[in-house]
Amino acid sequence: MQYDVQTPEEYLSRLEDDWRRDKLLELRELILKHGPDLTEGIDYKMLSYRDDRGIAIALNAQKHYVSLYVGDIAKVDADGTLLAGLNVGKGCIRFNKSVAVADTRIEEFIRRALDMWRRGEDIEC
């Protein structure tokens, strides 16, 4: 879903109080935990986490899932072991209602993606 907002606080206040909000907040906490050096903002009508080089990772609540955007997933998880069992596109990971974030290896994936970003490695699509 797209929200016409200017700040992360506005974005979060517009989320419906349902499973999407819960999943988004869980994923947001993991990003903030492993990316304390990144600035949280709004880009393309979704939450983004960036530094002076640009957006490292983004997060958005959709109608049927929550999306985590990370660039080219295969550059971060070449063998697919970290994201096994998840709904994955080329540049996003989709979390639907039935996926328990804590039961996945997404935290390890986020940490790896952000470490690669900090080292200047190319993880873009």
Keywords, separated by commas or semicolons:
single chain, 125 residues, alpha+beta, Aspartate Aminotransferase, domain 1, 6-stranded antiparallel beta sheet, 6 strands, globular
Major sheet: size, sense and barrel closure?
A: 6 strands, antiparallel
Number of strands: 6
What ranges have pLDDT less than 50 throughout 5 or more consecutive residues? none
In terms of DSSP E residues, the strand content is 15-25%
Biggest sheet strand line-up: 1-2-3-4-6-5
Structural class: alpha+beta
Q: Please identify, by name, the CATH architecture.
A: Alpha-Beta Complex
C-alpha termini separation = 22 Å
Structure description:
The protein is globular. The chain has 125 residues and is an alpha+beta fold. Helix 2 packs across helix 4 (106-118). It is 32% helix and 23% strand.
